[in-house]
Amino acid sequence: MNRTTTHRGIVYAKKGAAAASQPLAVSAALKILDAGGSFIDAGIALSAVISVVEPGASGLGGDVFLVTHHAETKENLAFNGSGEAPHDANRDAFDNEIPLHGYKASTVPGVVSGWFAAHERYGRLPMEQILAPAIGYAENGFPANEGFIARIKWHLQSFPETKLFETLGLSPELKLGELVTNKDMAWLLKEIVKGGREAFYSGAIATKIISGTNGWFNATDLNSHTTRVSAPLSINYRSFMVHGNPPPTQGMILMEQLLIANTFDKSTMSQADWLHMQVEAKKIAFTDRNSIISDPEVIPVDVDSILNPTHIASRAAGIDMDQADNKNVSPSEGSDTTYFLVADGDGNAVSWIQSVFHGFGASWVVPGTGMILNNRLTGFNLDPSSPNYIAPGKRPAHTLQAFTVTNPDGSLKYVGGTPGANVQVQTNFQLVTGLIDEGMSVQEVAEAPRWMHLSDPSTSAVNEEVKGVLSIESRFDEDVIADLKARGHDVVVLPEYGHASSVQVLEVLPGGTFAIGSDPRSEGHAAGI
Hints:
17 helices, seven-stranded antiparallel beta sheet, alpha+beta
C-alpha cells in the first residue's frame, strides 16, 4: 500500500473553495463566492443545484445538517434541519413495519428551513441571486452524467413497480449528455424566491404538500417545523477540537471512536493493530449509540454517559487486541446522502450534509412540485421499549453527520465529510485519524485505502450488527489483511477504490490558504477562486 500515490492534485485557493460530488454544483458555489457571497450563500446555491442534478441522494424534500465555523469570532455552530413525524405518525398507523416508499414514509422536509436559518446568520446575497443557478438547471436542463443514469437504473432494478421516473418525465432510456429538466422544481424554487421560507411551510408549496399527501401532513405539521441551532458536539483529540452534530444524529459515534483511539499510542502499533482497534471501536460506539439515541426534545439523551473519561477508559480496556468481537447487537441504518463543503475568503466554512435517506427517498413526488419526499420515517422503531420509538412531532435517529476540526487557538484546521449512511462515521473516523495521526495531506486522505464494517457488505440499508463483514480495499498490504482475518474478522476484499464513500476535505494552511481534496470514488471535484 502506498498512501502517497494520488490521482488528483490538491487544489489551493485563497478567496474561496468548494468541493462536492457533482461538478455543476461546485461551479454554482464558486459563482456565488465570486459575486461576493458568503460561505452560506454559496452553500445554499450548491445545495439547491445538487438537489436538482442529483435527486437520488438529496433534495428539498429531505433533511440537512451543518457544522459551521465563523473565522472572526471562532464560533462553531451545529444546524439541525431534520424533520418531525407528522400528526398521525404513531404505532397504530402501521402494521408490522413502516413502508419504505410513499408519502407515509416521510417526515417534514427540513432543507428549506435549514437554508433560511443559516442565511439569517451568515447570508449576504438575496435568495433570488443564490437560487438562480438551480432555477436555470431545473428550467432549461442539465446534461445527465453517468452517476445520474446509474442511480435511475439501480432504482428501477430494485423497485420495478415505482412510478417515480414516469412522474418526473424521466425515460429509463436516458442517454449520457441528454438534457434533463424539472419544470415543477423550477416553479417551487421561484416560489421560495418570492415568498421566502413561508412559501414552503405555509404558502403555495405547503398547500401542494398537504393536498398531495391526502392530509398526511397538515398545516400544523409544516408550520411548527423549526431548524435547531446549537453548539456542536465537541471533543479534544490529540490537542485538536473535533466538532460534529449532536443528537438526534449519530455524531456521538465519531466522537466515541476518536476518544477510544485517543487512549492508544499509534507509534507503538502495527498497521494491523491500528486497523483492528479502529474496527473494534466502531462496534463499541454503534452499540452505545443504539442504547441512548433519540430526539433529545422528547427523551433525554445523555451523551456524556458514553463520552466521559471513565466510560471511554472502560470501553478501550475491553478491546481484545487479539480477537474480533463478533457478538450480535443491532443498531439500524439508512442509505443515500450528499456531502459537500464551502469556505469563503474571510475564512468562514461550512461542513454540509443533506439527504432523502434511501436512494430517491420515498420514491414519490409531491404533485406539481418536482420534489421527491424523504423516507426518513423508516428511521423510527416500532418497538415501544426503544428510545427511538415513533411518535408525532418526534424526530427519528439520524445517520447524517459532518465535522470540522479547530486548532488549539480556536482557528479552523480541517473541514470534511462523506455520504454513506452508517459508513459515514466510520469514514470520518479514518479521515480524522489519517489527517492528525498519520499526517496525510487532504488529497492523500481522500484517496487513502479504507475499510467499512457492516452486517451486509452489499447494502447499507439493513440492521447493523456488531457481528458483520469487514470490507477492506485491496490496496492494503496482503499481510495486514491476513492478520485481520487471523484475529477473527470476516474480511471481504474490495476493488482498489471500492469503498462506499465520497470524501471532500479541506485544510486551512498557515497564512489562510485553503488546500482542498476530493475523492476519485465520485464524479465531483474540488475547486477554488
